[in-house]
From TrEMBL:
Protein name as it appears in the record: Prefoldin subunit 6
Family stated for the protein in its record: Belongs to the prefoldin subunit beta family.
Domain of life of the native organism: Eukaryota
Gene3D superfamilies: 1.10.287.370
Organism annotation: Gigaspora margarita
InterPro entries: PFD_beta-like, Prefoldin
Stretches assigned to coiled coil: 7-34
Length: 108
């Protein structure tokens, strides 16, 4: 394979990696936004009295929800988001490791 062909192949792979990293960062930003939003909701719930009315938007309708149930739902959502972020960082670190290996091993 000529040097020009190898450079072109390496450039194509590099562009693909850039696209993958961009997508991964966008996904992380979405998760971080959801995490912050749910943390704010959790803090607001902690300020409410136990007999306060809480309403959840289900489609176009507001549905009354028990404070304990709503608080539990937000706590579960936070756990799920944090778990997703942990998985994301684990895979992203592995991905970066593979990229570094690829850069070091694949000769031009």
């Amino acid at each position: 394979m000529s040097l020009e062909a190898r450079l072109e192949a390496a450039t194509t792979e590099y562009q693909k990696l850039q696209k993958d990293i961009t997508n991964a960062v966008e996904n992380l930003q979405k998760l971080d936004s959801q995490l912050q939003e749910n943390e704010i909701v959790q803090k607001e719930f902690s300020l409410l009295k136990d007999d306060s009315n809480i309403y959840k938007l289900v489609g176009p309708v507001l549905v009354k929800q028990d404070k304990a149930e709503a608080t539990e739902n937000v706590a579960r959502r936070l756990e799920h988001i944090q778990s997703d972020m942990f998985v994301f960082f684990s895979f992203f670190n592995f991905f970066l490791f593979i990229v570094v290996i690829w850069i070091c091993i694949v000769p031009l």
